[in-house]
TrEMBL record:
CDD domains: AdoMet_MTases. It comes from the Bacteria. It comes from Streptomyces antimicrobicus. This is Cyclopropane-fatty-acyl-phospholipid synthase family protein. InterPro entries: CFA/CMAS, CMAS, MeTfrase_dom, SAM-dependent_MTases_sf. Residues 133-149 have a biased composition (Basic and acidic residues). Keywords: Lipid metabolism, Methyltransferase, S-adenosyl-L-methionine, Transferase. Residues 121-149 are annotated as: Disordered.
Length: 436
């Protein structure tokens, strides 16, 4: 019989209480669902087993990473159609993630639908997660050792892979776009924007926290004459950054260290840049992070904190870390609302002087990265693994839609340490707001 897709479509609609927004093709070749839409290809019934044993986003993600689910057609369109069923439903409780297939049981029609789904999936013992999933360790999620492991999982997957993904700039954060510009131009503009906000010039000391592959450090030293210390927990990033420093003849102005920000003791610095690093700090450690950076600045020194933000929850205790990202992308990463970030910086003693929202810019950046990945897919698979490439494709495409739909934001917060005479002076400046 070739009826898996119609059965699966009917069961899905019963369990979710909504019409299926995409077409389904099952492992037996059958299809069901609205024509003219992207096709969700269920290549193996093992995908259903994963969803039964881990209901929700993580089960779907495991099936995607394992290659048991795929999309034919526009991936962004498919994810946009599925967003209301996956990411924008009410958050699950802890109880919803325990008990395997029994966790889906409901009264009436849903109970019968689950029985039929179990029959269709033939759920033997739960399939093991794809190997790209982070290995969980005990202890404090943001101890120095566990932070090193989390950073290594994300960044130590090969510098060649990141070169393929990011392009020559090797900048792994939101770019700053002009209409019609290229990714390289937009990343150069972002680095320059940060340097101007920090008022860098010849001889000023800059600490670049989470320096990545050294792009910000190199730009600040080369274009502004700053003396830069870049720190990262990734040994692969440090090797690459040091090589770039040597190639550009900037070893007298740039030092790259493998070091935790909590262990930096050679302040004061004139300026600190933290670009896409604070997401790794964790809410329990954020006040410590803000106080440590405050202590490392001279009076009148500036901090540029460039950080992804989430929308605030009506009840903040309801916030849950995204399961897919926590398991496959950024272990132990947490997003804060913008207001929380500003409040913690102010509590540490900073005066917040400027906030610039770049949400639309990150959507464009992510789409550019996805395009690079898909254009060189076979090479990306060779450099990492099929599962790793699928992780990045799903993560970046879904994140792009998150920024476009306003579920995510990214902000540059400029904060200043007061001088002995009081508040630090910043020159007057205006922003241009074009007509829509």
């Amino acid at each position: 019989m070739t009826d898996a897709a119609p059965r699966l479509a009917a069961l899905t609609e019963t369990l979710l209480g909504a019409s299926l927004p995409v077409r389904i093709r099952a492992w037996d070749g059958s299809e069901a669902g609205p024509p003219g839409t992207p096709v969700l290809v269920v290549r193996h019934r093992r995908a259903l087993r994963r969803i039964l044993w881990k209901p929700g986003e993580l089960g779907l993600a495991r099936a995607w990473v394992a290659g048991e689910l795929a999309v034919e057609g526009d991936l962004y369109d498919a994810l946009d159609r599925l967003a209301g069923l996956i990411w924008e439903r009410q958050p699950a409780t802890d109880a919803d993630h325990r008990g395997g297939p029994l966790a889906l049981l409901r009264d009436g029609d849903a109970r019968a639908a689950v029985r039929d789904l179990v029959t269709l999936a033939r759920p033997l013992p739960a399939p093991p997660p794809p190997p790209e999933e982070a290995v969980r360790r005990g202890g404090d999620p943001h101890s120095r050792g566990r932070d090193r492991e989390a950073v290594s999982h994300h960044y130590d997957v090969g510098n060649e892979f990141y070169e393929l993904l990011l392009g020559p700039s090797m900048v792994y954060s939101c770019a700053y776009w002009e209409p019609g510009g290229t990714l390289e131009e937009a990343q150069h503009a972002k680095l320059d924007l940060v340097c101007r906000k920090l008022a860098l010039d010849s001889g000023r000391r800059l600490l670049d926290v989470g320096c990545g592959w050294g792009s910000m450090a190199l730009h600040a030293a080369r274009e502004y004459g700053a003396r830069v210390t870049g720190i990262t927990l990734s040994r692969e990033q440090a090797v690459h950054a040091r090589k770039r420093v040597a190639q550009e003849g900037l070893a007298d102005r740039v030092e790259i260290r493998v070091q935790d920000y909590r262990d930096v003791k050679d302040g004061p610095y004139d300026a600190i840049s933290s670009i896409g690093m604070a997401e790794h700090v964790g809410s329990a450690r954020y006040r410590e992070y803000a106080r440590d950076l405050f202590a490392l600045l001279r009076p009148g020194g500036r901090l540029l904190n460039h950080q992804i933000a989430r929308r605030p929850e009506p009840d903040e205790s309801a916030y849950r870390v995204d399961e897919f990202i926590d398991s496959y992308v950024f272990p132990d990463g947490e997003l804060s609302a913008l207001g929380t970030t500003v409040t913690e910086l102010e509590r540490a003693g900073f005066e917040v002087r400027d906030v610039e929202a770049l949400r639309e810019h990150y959507a464009l950046t992510l789409r550019a990265w996805v395009a690079r990945l898909e254009a060189r897919w076979e090479e990306a698979v060779r450099l990492t693994s099929p599962g790793r490439a699928r992780v990045w494709q799903l993560y970046m495409a879904a994140s792009a839609l998150g920024f476009e739909r306003g579920r995510l934001g990214v902000n540059q917060v400029l904060a200043v340490k007061a001088t002995s005479a009081g508040a630090a002076y910043l020159p007057l400046r205006t922003r241009t707001w074009p007509a829509v």
